[in-house]
Amino acid sequence: MLRLPGANPRTPGHLISAADLTRDDAVLILDTAEEMARVADRPIKKLPTLRGRTVVNLFFEDSTRTRTSFEVAAKRLSADVINFSAKGSSVSKGESLKDTALTLEAMGADAVVIRHSASGAPYRLATSGWIDGAVVNAGDGTHEHPTQALLDAFTLRRRLVGADAGLGKDLDGVRVTIVGDVLHSRVARSNVLLLHTLGAHVTVVAPPTLVPVGVGAWPCTVSYDLDEALPETDAVMMLRVQRERMNAAFFPTEREYSRRYGLDTDRMNRMPDGALVMHPGPMNRGMEITAEVADSPRATIVEQVANGVSIRMAVLYLLLGGNEPAVSHHRPEESK
Amino acid sequence: MSDDKILIRGARVLGGDPRDVLVEGETISRLGTGLDADGARVVDAEGLILLPGLVDLHTHLREPGREDSETVLTGTRAAAKGGFTAVHAMANTFPVADTAGVVEQVWRLGQASGYCDVRPVGAVTVGLEGKQLAELGAMHDSAAQVRVFSDDGKCVDDAVIMRRALEYVKAFDGVVAQHAQEPRLTEGAQMNEGAVSAQLGLGGWPAVAEESIIARDVLLAAHVGSRVHICHLSTAGSVELVRWAKSKGWNVTAEVTPHHLLLTDELVRSYDPVYKVNPPLRTDADVMALREALADGTIDCVATDHAPHPHEDKDCEWAAAAMGMLGLETALSVVQETMVDTGLIDWAGVADRMSMRPARIGRLDGHGRPIAAGEPANLVLVDPAYRGTVDPAGFVSRSRNSPYAGRELPGRVTHTFLRGKATVTDGKLA
Hints:
The structure holds 2 protein chains of 2 kinds.
Chain A: H1 23-40, E1 54-59, H2 64-76, E2 80-85, H3 97-106, E3 111-116, H4 121-127, E4 134-140, H5 146-160, E5 175-179, H6 186-197, E6 201-205, E7 221-223, H7 226-229, E8 235-238, H8 254-261, H9 265-269, E9 276-278, H10 291-294, H11 301-320
Parallel strand pairs in A: 1-2, 1-3, 3-4, 5-6, 5-8, 6-7, 8-9
Helix pairs in contact in A: 1-5, 1-11, 2-11, 5-6, 5-11
Chain B: E1 2-13, E2 18-24, E3 27-32, E4 40-44, E5 49-52, E6 54-59, H1 72-81, E7 84-89, H2 100-113, E8 117-120, H3 136-141, E9 148-149, H4 159-168, E10 175-178, E11 191-192, H5 195-200, E12 204-205, H6 207-224, E13 228-230, H7 236-247, E14 252-256, H8 258-262, H9 284-296, E15 301-302, H10 331-340, H11 347-361, E16 379-389, E17 408-418, E18 421-425, E19 428-429
Helix pairs in contact in B: 1-2, 4-6, 6-7, 7-9
């Protein structure tokens, strides 16, 4: 079985942080996702690879999009999928993360896909000894969301290098600008780490209130000026900005935020030809991005969703499957 | 042979040359060499260091209210095992120690335990809520003889309340011990704000939240001519402020915890809540500044901030976990590791920072005294050559939340004497 050894020796066999991935690990996931994407083009969109394996979606936070994406991915690999969400379960009755994990372990979960509001909860799950299965971080607090970063990298490689031409390649020299609430964004943290690992140059742009103290240690450039960054970028990633941040004085008003950091048509036109507009969703149209931009041909937002399924298939396959080729019809199923 | 008479033979008093120390009843009766046992129980102390019994200004004994994590009995046993003969029990119990009734209850439980003197700390404000002064005078006048007042766990953040408290306790030579934490700057704070918090996505706890309160409070103390004590200094900036206040001649004292002398926020990368503590673990530069300040006397003393928590409050995700770590049973070892074995202070310095000065700040009679004839026999023997791996399973505290589990540390308390009575013998509770 292929284990993603990654940079963190404490979490082998799990995907907790984008920092767990070496350049070669990440390229392997992207290449595997390309194979998975081809399955989606077939009349029968299913592989038998994970038949008999159980994947649990353990969602302590509402997230229909990410949960559905993981669910579709696991089902396309023929895994049994259990959705365990906080609402309506024992979790909302005060059961601890530990007891929930022990319950899932007793049920024989081979992989646990976890979304949690507490930063580090997936790391705890992977290192605590509570469960044996593979842990996949589907977003933890303001820490990381590694599969989002992988699907963003996948989208970038497909668009800027090509689906076939990109195989085996990284994002060397690609300039990516991440804009918005970097302080509270797990998407930004994972993207900065992964894009850097893949050779891209990352700039984060935000009002100074929404950049963490300590950002100097990140492998990226920091700017407070969107207009300065846009002409020098191959792709811009707009982050969702919660309107409530205004009440904690992170910025004065929604309108001022939009004027200084929102992406409208004028600003988009200052980007080089062919530069992409990305958004992890859900969008606040009119806040960080205007409707015209979101619906423009440069926008990859719907594609990102589709690519998310391929990436999550690849991650589950690599963590749970075998080291045989991803798409194979004549081989017998692996023994358990 | 009787415990009424003990001859401690060949101990290095405060780390000096070997001497014999004869204890009769509750008192040290003679020091010398080659003293005759003359029926006394002999304790062979060759190679051991003899210090005055340690005094902790900052202990959470949890009783009343959280007896699942510690009681006065289990906490004072842990204290004795760590070489302490007196502890100050913090006020954040349930109910809060904000009346003469509650502090007397804690004091009486300490008397009954017999392992260690317990001096209750009184709350500054009713219910630790920072709004209305508690009956500070009544607590002072009670049998518990409260001299130190603190809302520890919470900051007295209202400048007027703090000023009044500082002024009011002058009437009976009390001291306000401030937990310096600006509340608005630390809403949702989970760890030191810096490079590590930025990466881990945990809410940042800026150094300025501590330093701004210290700056305000030393100015207030100077203005009203009171003394103020700063709990658990954790940043290099706090050290600078205290150093400045002392240079002005203001009556400011400060403490540092063992864990802030050794551990840094790099440990939080494990997301293991055993490292979650208030104030948070800081950076290596802060640790070095704190050690230097303890050595040069800017920081007066070491205080454990012993904070027991039941297993379930630590065996969870970081954000859900309680703040605090055990300290009593490892304090002396950590101080040896960080201060003595590094050459920053000698054993006389340890006696000063862990016994004499905290006793003086707490106006605690009978503790922190010189080792001399006629003085109370509150004593501890330490084996400095010992090295061992910390195993919380062997703790006598009711809780196990030690950040040193699995870490090798030097030094071991072999004997503790409380007024001539052995509370610890050969490393075990008597």
